[in-house]
Amino acid sequence: MHTPLETMTETIGFDEQTRSLYSFDAFKDRENGTILRHLYNYWVTLPVGAHGLPHEDQCRPKVDLSAKVADMVSWIDTTPDDPLNFIIRDHVESTIPGWGVELSDKPLCNCPEMEMHTTACAVEYLFCKHERKPMYHEIDQLIGGLKRHYTRIMLPVENNAGEVDRIYYATNQLQPITRVAFHVVGES
Amino acid sequence: MYGILRRQYEESGTDQQERLMLSFDKMFSRERDTALGDLFSYWRLKCAGTSNLPNMNEFSSRSLLPQSARRFTSWLETETSNPLGFVLRNHPKLTAFGDHSNHRLGELTFKMNAKAIIKEYLYCKSLQRPLYHEIEQTVESNSRHFVRLLLPVVDDSGDVTRLVYAVRLIGAAAPPDSPANS
DSSP state, B179? Predict the structure, then answer.
C-alpha cells in the first residue's frame, strides 16, 4: 500500500475530485502490465536528448507501439505560455458524448463545464513541463454527474531547444465511467 | 459556514492546507471595517461604475490607496502568460509568510502552496473578477490562518497585468502589525 506524495481534494457544489500524486515506486507496483507501464517502458528506453529528456522526434508512441497501447495514448501541446491554452491532441475515444475525440485540438480552457478538472490538469501539465520529469496521478472525480476513477502517467519530451512542448499521457480506468443522479431528500 | 463557493484541501507529508473560496456576501460582512474592505471599496470606485476593471495606474503608488490598506497591499505582476513567471511585489512583511518579494512563483519551494495559488491567480486573471479566500495551512511546521482579497487590474490595452491583493491574519496568531481583525 503506497501513500501518495500529495493529495488534493476539491469541492464545488455537487462536484468533487481527489487527485493524488504518487511516487514512481508506487507506479511500478500498481501499473505492472498495464498500458501505462508499456508506455513508460517505451519512453524510458528512448535515447536521451541534449537536455536530458527524450527528443520529440524520437518519441512516436502512436507509430511505434501496438494498436492496443497506441490507441490509448494522447498528448498535450505545451507550447503556449498560458497553461489554460495547452492543447489536447489525439484524445482517446469515449462512450460519453463530448468527452472523446471531439476534445482533440482544443485548448484546456475550451471546456468550462469541466473547469475544476481542466484547471487542475493545466497546473499538473505546467509542473510536469517545468520540472521536466514524468508524473503519476490517481484521479477520482464526480463532475457534472459523471463519475470517473483512473490513473494517469505523464511523460515529457523535449524539442531542439530543450523545451518541453509535448507531454504524452495515458490513463487506466480503475472503475467504469458511470452517470450519477442526485435526489434531494424531501423532494416529490 | 455559509458562502463557501469552492473548497480545496491538500496534504503532502506533514504539510496541509485548506483553501475556501468565499462569496462576496461573506467578504462584505467580514471585512466591512478592515483594510481589505477599504481596499475593495477603492478598487470598486476605480471601476467607475462600469464592468471595466481599474487601470493599474490607479494602484501605481501606495499613496493612492486608502490609508488603512497601504501597508498591507501587495501585488503580483502577471504580464507574462506563464504563471510560473508571475512576480510577487511587496509581499506581506509578516513573520508568518516569510519574504518572497521580487520572486517568481516558479521559485517558491513549497510546491503544494505554489500549485494552489497558481490556480487561484489563473482563475482571477481569466475571470477578470475579484476573489476572496480563507486559507488555513501548516507549512514546514509553521501554521497560519488568513483571508486574502485578490483584485485584478488592467493595463491600457485591457489585459490583466497585475493582481493586487491584501491579507489579514485570523486568530490568536495575528501579530499587532497585521490589519485589524473584525
Answer: P
Query: Are the C-beta atoms of residues A108 and A118 closer than 8 Å to each other?
Result: yes
B115–chain A nearest CA distance, Å: 7
Does residue A134 contact residue A125 with C-beta atoms inside 8 Å? no
Task: Annotate A72-92 with three-state secondary structure.
Answer: CEEEEECCCCCHHHCEEECCC
| Residues of the domain holding B163 | 4-169
Here the ipTM equals 0.88
pTM of the model: 0.91
Closest CA to B147 of B10, B14, B34, B15: B34
Q: Which residue of A has its CA nearest to B115?
A: A123
Q: What is the pLDDT of residues A164-177, one digit of tens each?
A: 999 999 999 999 98
Domain tally, chain A: 1
Host domain of residue A20: 16-179
Q: If contacts are CB pairs under 8 Å, which of residues 75-94 in chain A contact chain B?
A: 80-85
Closest listed residue to residue A155, CA positions, set A24, A66, A17: A24
CA distance A119 to chain B (A): 7
* Residue B182, in any domain of the structure: no
For residues B10 and B16, the answer to whether their CB atoms sit within 8 Å is yes
B40-97 per-position pLDDT tens digit:
999 999 997 667 899 999 988 888 999 888 888 899 999 999 999 999 988 876 656 6
